[in-house]
Amino acid sequence: MRSKNSLEHSYGFKKAQDRIFPPMVFAEITNVCNLHCIHCPHTYVSKQRFYKPRHMEFSIYKRIVDEVAQFKGTVFRLVCDGEPTLHPRLLDMIMYAKKNNIQPICLITNGTLLTKKISMNMLNAGIDVIEISLDAVRKDTYESIRLGASFKEVMDNTQRFIDLRNKLKLHTKIMVSIIDQPEVAGEIKDFVEYWDGKVDKVIIRTYTSIGGLVKKNNAGSFTQDGRWPCPLLWTRIFINVDGRLKFCVEDWLNRTIVGDIREISLKQMWQSSIYNQIRNYHQLRQFHKIPHCNKCIDWSSRKWDYDYFYALNQLLKKTRKNESS
User: Fold this and answer.
1) Residue 240 to residues 88, 313, 315, 325, Cα–Cα distance (Å)
2) Residue 201 main-chain phi, psi, to 5 deg
3) What global pTM score does this model have?
């Protein structure tokens, strides 16, 4: 029997424009992080021989932004594999994207480095959406999940960011998120209730193995029964810290590299025979023809009707409504 999810979708591009250019672009501006979180593969990856801590070169970043700027409405996210606020030119990056009229620009952070100065600069630079990953609402739980972080410091940083945004009356939208993992069993409701009304949106993220790099207690419950095509292939593209393009955000080991931004444009790659073949295999449910996808145990967490686009559309819809009233 096919799942409810698969029955509701024909699977493919939602808009004609999406065939031309990805509606969402991820730029991994750094692979360096200051924490060791139990649900994140960074601790494992950073110990491998191939790992080299580095930040994205500004020339590569500019190349990405210059192309994204040509396609109005593309969601531009500064995320993946590291903590963005560690990049020494983060503010320059935000301002360069704003200068090129990219909107929305979204960033996800662990919040540990959101000092008053950094928060002010980021807000004044014009960041559109910031997501702060908190993952708990109690000190003991938080510090058992996010190793190396201070619960009080992060909570203070988050509240100060909210207060500064409100005081300056800026358009920046603030989200906080929690991963539905065993360590927070029974705490998610309290998390939502605490932040509801304080921020623009509370996100509950699915607990995944991230390509098998995170050892999950319930990994055995994942099967291939009723599997549907991965929506990421039709909605987003990823550029790693070196400027190489990959088709899977869960690929921390860079096994799904399909090109290099210095040799091929995002538009060319998005419309390439390589990408279309991968999409075709997914639509035909021939996942075995793509080694990386064939081993995926997190496919069910990739929904076609409830994802980051859904959360973002809710936020921006509120903004547009407020601006028109």
Assistant:
1) 17, 26, 27, 41
2) -160, 145
3) 0.91
